Amino acid sequence: MSQPHESRVYSDLARFYDFFFGRVFVDREHEVIESLNLRPGNRVLEVGVGTGIALDGYPPYAHVVAIDPSAEMLARAKKRVTEHGWKHIELSLGDALNLGYPDNSFDYVTSFHVLTVVPDPYRMMSEMVRVCKPGGRIAITTHFQSANPVVAFLNTIFNPVARQLGWTTKLRKKDVLKGHPITLERNEKISPMSVHTVIVARKNA
Question: pLDDT tens, 139-179?
């Protein structure tokens, strides 16, 4: 079985990622970033930046650190940053399960469509909460298993194929969010028919 970021989607298919996935997700990612109302001097960590399709959503007055474990993805993100001259964005190789930053380092932590990719999504969420400052926000978009039993059954059938590509269709929301010192501020599907969800949570003081 392919491990997350070791599948073809994250290596030799990286050059096609924007075409297949960017058009579907980028508008929503920009909307989520805009809704955070970032202020001058805010420090933001984006976990799993991929090819950087969401980076132009961040205002230039915020300092953004964006990490990804895939060298192929990161190379494309770096090209994008260089072409646009984004001085406020810092890119680095990084592991979502072991964020190399001290506790309470960032005002905001974002991640788009990454939780279903990592082998331990609860640990990833724990790391995101850990590096977020008290009172700061964690914002994610991801695919959770549907509460509709028919859709959930179809997800289960498709899951072996999804796992070969590098993600799971069986991640349950409660298994990711429970037990963290956070308060949910936003918890909604992207659209009534969508399986993708937007979560914005504030880290408790």
Answer: 998 876 666 555 554 556 544 444 555 555 557 788 889 99
- Which CATH number fits the domain that encloses residue 62? 3.40.50.150
pTM reported for the whole predicted model = 0.81
CA gap 88, 142 in Å, rounded: 26
The CA–CA distances, whole Å, from 14 to 19, 42, 56, 118 equal: 10, 30, 19, 17
Residue 164 in any domain: the answer is yes
Residue carrying structure tokens 């001259």: 85
Q: Report the amino acid identity of residue 63.
A: H
Q: How many residues does the chain have?
A: 205
Residues 197, 115: Cα–Cα separation, whole Å = 11
- 2 within a domain of the structure (yes/no): no
Lookup: tokens for 184: 């949910």
pLDDT tens string 6-49: 444 555 455 555 555 555 567 889 999 999 999 999 999 999 99
Say how many CA atoms lie within 13 Å of 27 toward its Cβ. Answer: 4
Residue 43: strand, helix, or coil? strand
Answer left, alpha or beta for residue 168, where phi above 0 means left and psi between -120 and 50 means alpha.
beta
What CA–CA distance (Å, rounded) separates 201 from 187? 9
Please count the structural domains in the chain. 1
- Residue-range definition of the domain harbouring residue 197: 8-203
